[in-house]
Amino acid sequence: MSSLTFRLPMKLQELTVVGCIRRTGSSLDRVDLLSESNKKRCKAQLQALKSSLKTKKSEDSGVSKQAAVLIPMCFVDCQPSIVFTLRSNNLRNHAGQISFPGGMVSEGDTDSVATALRESEEELGLDLGNVDVWGPMLPLPYRTGDVQITPILANLGKIDVENFELNYDEVDCVFTRDILSLCSAKNFAQTTYSPPPAGGYTTPIFLGGNYKIWGLTAIILHQTLNLIAPGLYTNRLVHPRTIGKATQLHN
After folding, report:
1. Strands 65-76 and 147-158
2. What is the CATH number of the domain that holds 161?
3. Which of 79, 111, 117, 145 has the greatest number of beta carbons closer than 10 A?
4. How far is the C-alpha of 239 from the C-alpha of 29, rounded, in Å?
5. Other C-beta atoms within 10 Å of 29: how many?
6. In the chain, which stretches have pLDDT less than 70?
């Protein structure tokens, strides 16, 4: 199963994020970012948000397919980071785009976590024994409206990307971005789309590395940073849109 990099959805779904992680001086306490205490806070925040939403059943919203992606947090040279993949140019869909490892739910997958882990093992040769799964985030719709994607937050611990065993049929390369640079305002941009008569929506773009991160990958990253580092990540979308009854305190 190939990984998925998704283009812009028709609407955005924003996370409600409350709380702040401890900071030392002007920089984030790196120990806190991927710590058990922050894991506990994030899981509690996600559970509270899910409980507050009255979501429709998939069959009522037109969703007929499910997919999942892994958000692989890690330490690289003592820097809290996130892993991304560059999709193979040989793929029929979304070739050469930046993505998180993941794909469509297959028969035998027990849940979205199982899908994200299986796909990550297939694409990266990920050692699943070293993955600390924090849990699923809120699902987002694919632009076609018939696919729902669930991001799975996980901590890989200390890694060296050279140790990944890539499936080059699906992935050209793997790279990491440190979370502090992703949180920087100078590496943040946004694009607003205004199709009549709905009024439009805004999507984030992350700069500063060798690859520009955009589309649904950037939207998921925006939500992730709001969740794991609300005291550090302060970039906001100027024209957000929500899905259903989702409440947003941070855009």
Report:
1. parallel
2. 3.90.79.10
3. 117
4. 31
5. 15
6. 1-31, 53-63, 89, 91-96, 143-145, 195-199, 239-251
Structural domain boundaries enclosing 135: 23-51+62-228
Helix/strand/coil percent split, the chain, to 5? 25, 30, 45
Instruction: State pLDDT tens for residues 115-132.
Output: 999 999 999 999 999 999
- Would you say the C-alpha torsion 29, 86, 96, 68 has a positive or negative sign? negative
- Cα 192 to Cα 131: distance, rounded to the nearest angstrom: 36
pLDDT of residue 83: 98
Predicted pLDDT of residue 92:
61
What pTM value is reported for the model? 0.81
Structurally, the chain folds into a number of domains equal to 1
Instruction: Indicate the residue type of 6.
Output: F
- Dihedral in degrees, nearest 10, Cα atoms 97, 101, 105, 110: -170
